[in-house]
Amino acid sequence: MSLVSIESPKHCAKKGLNVHKLSKKLFFAFSAFFTTLLSLILIIWLILRPTKPEFSLKETDIYQLSLSGPNLLNSSIQLTLLSKNPNQKVGIYYDELQVYAAYKGQQITVDSPLPPFYQGHQDSNLLTASLVGAGLPVAPSFNYEVGRDQTAGKLVLNLRVNGRIRWKVGTWVSGRYRINVSCLAVMALGSTLPTGPLRSTQGTACSTALEIEKAGFQRFFRGGLKMMLRGSCQPSSKFGSGRNQKLVLGTLYLFECFNFASLNVLRAERKRGRETGRDDRNLRRRRQEIYSLPLP
């Protein structure tokens, strides 16, 4: 003789109430986490006051700027830039820097690399680059644009610096950011293209733009996901233990631990939902078996 147990509606309602309470706890946990994270980010920002690096153009020399054929340009330019780190507690690693000159939106020199270097707190560095171009194709409107500048009596060049940098706080080093620097050099221009040195010593401030690398963000996200799936809730040793980055370490540690905990909660809720679904199906099947039994 087999025993058949049928759960009451009150028991099923209690299960639904537990799932509702779990969802509410998860919501409050997410809210508390994001509030804490935003507060920590605000505190870190108030302590470090991170500011993007500053660039200014000190000197520009044009040694050659002439057409060697139909729409082919030869150029030779030398420039001097001043780079300054205005941060008091943040250092900057310049990993890759490429410099080139442009005129009316057309690149008139090839990319010239600058050696990588580290810039400490409130340090300044002079950067020099020699830019050349041999037989570079230019638009047919190049002569027309130069003619307009000759009429105006001045030549405006756009000097650009593109590269990647990293921030350093104590022993912690951030991921890579793209840096784009744009400087304008204004020079007096006569009735003909310059064949000799043409110098501009008028110092001008440059505009600087920063953006996080998409590939670097994806690598960080994938690394964090792997960490959660492994069940690791320990801060990485590469962040060091310096006194200046305790808040940074605390934020990263909290982020890793919360991700791991929330993932476990979601797994448990999903598993409970599957088990509840199986219980409901078994209950319906047993009811059908009971109702199909012949009457005594």
From TrEMBL:
The chain crosses the membrane at residues 26-48. InterPro entries: LEA_2 (IPR004864), NDR1-like (IPR044839). Pfam families: LEA_2 (PF03168). GO terms for cellular component: plasma membrane; plasmodesma. It is found in: Membrane. Keywords: Membrane, Transmembrane, Transmembrane helix. GO terms for biological process: defense response to other organism. Residues 80-183 form the Late embryogenesis abundant protein LEA-2 subgroup domain. It comes from the Eukaryota. It is a single-pass membrane protein. This is Late embryogenesis abundant protein LEA-2 subgroup domain-containing protein. It comes from Salix brachista.
